[in-house]
Amino acid sequence: MKTILIANQKGGCGKTITAITLSTALAQKRYKVALADADNQKSALQWLKQRPSDCAPIQSLNWSQEKAIGDAPKNLDYLIIDAPGALHGEHAEQLIAECDAIVIPLQPSFFDIDSTRRFLKHIQNIKRIRKGKVEIYLIANRVKSNSASSKIIQEFFEKVEQQPTAWISERSLYGQLAAQGLSIFDKTQKNAYQLQQQWQPLLNVLIDDPTTWF
User: Fold this and answer.
1) What's the pLDDT score for residue 190?
2) Looking at per-residue confidence, does 91 or 88 come out higher?
3) Residue 82 · residue 15 · CB < 8 Å
4) Which pLDDT value is given to residue 183?
5) 139 in Cβ contact with 166 (< 8 Å)
6) Which of 52, 54, 58 is nearest to 25 (CA)?
7) Which of 19, 35, 71, 93 could cross-link with 6 by S-S, CB 3.0 to 4.6 Å?
8) Contact (CB, 8 A) for 33 and 27
């Protein structure tokens, strides 16, 4: 089983949408997937409750209480963890101890960039990361093409010397589908397909699967 943590200490950066999008992509490929919600707001759990029964199955895990962290079925292929906002200290170490990779979404705003910079600095002190046992991937989220903010976020990536694995455009379709318990990977229409393509670079580095995704 590979465990992927979706985290940042900044709230509202798109962690839950990232978690449900990755979970659905994997479920559509017929992997056994669970989505663990470690946030007290339980947004991912609410999304799963709305998910239609005829969609690709995703198991639901409630990790909102710290004592539940690590409790997962043994037969999973992938476990996606939706981390809480303001993740730090022992809680961060506890979740990172469970993961093989961390995906850090951030939006092109001063607050997201500043928060992400501090989050990256904090987690570098965690033993598991310091020893190189956890992969870290950044994704630029809700980006508007040719905007001044996209240039600002590019400067940030250059400063931290790590380019984003994927650039994800801002689209209302994400929210519209989430309200129905769905994601873009549940759809085959052209507009969904175009968005799916933006996630392919992240899927390529996270998932060892040479078969065609779309």
Assistant:
1) 93
2) 91
3) yes
4) 98
5) yes
6) 58
7) 19
8) yes
Q: How far is CA 139 from the centre of its chain?
A: 9
- With 0-12 / 13-18 / 19 or more C-beta atoms within 10 angstroms meaning exposed / middle / buried, residue 55 is middle
Interval 3-53: pLDDT, tens: 999 999 877 889 999 999 999 999 999 999 999 999 989 999 999 999 999
Check: CB of residue 20 under 8 Å from CB of residue 183: yes
Q: How many CB atoms lie within 10 A of CB 177?
A: 22
Residues across the chain: 214
Mind giving me the DSSP string for the chain? -EEEEE--SSTTSSHHHHHHHHHHHHHHTT--EEEEE-STT-HHHHHHHHS-TTSPP-EEEE--SGGGTT---TT-SEEEEEPPSS--HHHHHHHHTT-SEEEEEE-SSHHHHHHHHHHHHHHTTSHHHHTT-SEEEEEEEEEPTT-HHHHHHHHHHHHTT---SEEEE--THHHHHHTTT--GGG--SHHHHHHHHHHHHHHHHH----S---
Angle between helices 43-50 and 15-28 (to 10 degrees): 40
Count the neighbouring beta carbons within 10 Å of the beta carbon of residue 162.
Answer: 14
